[in-house]
Amino acid sequence: MTDTEDMTERLSPLNRAHVDAGASFTDFAGWQMPVRYSSDLAEHAAVRTAAGLFDLSHMAEILILGPEAADALDYALAGKISAVAIGQAKYSLLLSREGGIIDDLVVYRTGEDRFLVVANASNRAVVARELLERCSPFECEVFDESDDIALIAIQGPKSYEILSQVPGVDVPGLKDLKYYWSTAGRFGREHELLVARTGYTGEDGFELYVAPDVAPALWEAIMDTGKGSGLVPAGLASRDTLRLEAGMPLYGHELGLDTYASQAGLGRVVNLKKEGDFVGRAAVEEGAPPGSRMLVGLATEGKRAGRAGYAVFSAEDGSTEIGVITSGALSPTLGYPIAMAYVDAAHAGEGHSVFIDVRGTRVPASVVSLPFYKRETN
Amino acid sequence: MADKTTLQYTAEHEWVLVEGVVATVGITAYAAEKLGDVVFVELPDVGSGIAEGKVIGEIESTKSVGELFAPVDGTVVAANEAVVSSPELVNSDPFGEGWLIKVEFETLPTLLSYDEYSRLVGE
After folding, report:
1. Nearest-CA residue of chain B relative to A242?
2. pTM for the structure as a whole
3. A120 and A66, same domain (yes or no)
């Protein structure tokens, strides 16, 4: 139990609102961000049953503009970005030449010649640098807009009901906005919003990109509107357990430079059918080295969760280590411990029995399919 | 709920209430808040001997695992079963219903006063 709050950190434009709401903070990629406001479990449950409001202003936003922007991104990223329709979003990967994952990101096409690439805060510099370099042969420009864009996410089954009633928020077509599509909206008369039906929780929800100086008023307006419907501000602790239940990978845990997309279950994100070269293509075509471990879900009984870094064994005696956990927690929704782990392919099949070393005790676990939790849709 | 100002403390964020030869031990509100929502507590068996400074249990939250250190040498005479079945008591009432164990001891080591502990955590 050590105290880690003393570094010089960047503050979100919403910092004041977080302090006023009694948030505890954590350092995240050099930013001081809310880890929780009152209770991780309550915030987690609110997102599953009503709605939670997240400040994601630390995320990186990089704009690619120009007549060859689509071609540039086809070369720079693993997916076929030129096939993305205006208004559509696409989950993609920035691969290294060796086929490893530099970052996972979401690309929003907001115009014929205009793309917004949203990357992890911790990878802002490398993503901006790589995009600048990879796009340089093409007729387009690359701007790191991260300092000029704040990001607020409302997630949970009541997201639409709440957002549609926020005074001053005007987003034409919000109700019928499809998953992984975005549209332009307004807050008040003069403030532009980019509103996307995306998220990282496994629930319905929206992400709102807005100018930093407008973000506090927007946050307050959404909170005021949603309070009566069970909306709570939600911190990064609940965001992590929510995304884990939804089987969504986190950079630095499930994804990294030493990970191939195919190992992480993201083979479909790499489009080998697209014409022309893209960075990492040759390495991906060669495939992950033989014997590469595969990402699996693990479920255990009891309450003791396997956590990132814990070893996975094939037998209780711990003679043969066959993998390692990358994320794990006692699932707040399911009530039993869940984890994601890289294990040897021979043990990656659903239903396989393995053992997690939980601080010296070997806890039996089963390989299960991802995601652990899937919301009911109608 | 015990009076925080008359309790003694350890640098491992535990509080100790001394009554005769029995010390009641819990973790502080500061530690509980740092951990986040506690979801699992493992305590030593009643009757087991414990040695000051040794790990004798675990307090696990959704985010992390905290270790429970023995604040004194002695014998465990009670473990709070309520906290094992309802770990959230550590968050809701760390100085009261969230107590963890009672230890019968022979000699009490030097512990921190309320003021000393408050300075340690900067509050």
Report:
1. B62
2. 0.93
3. yes
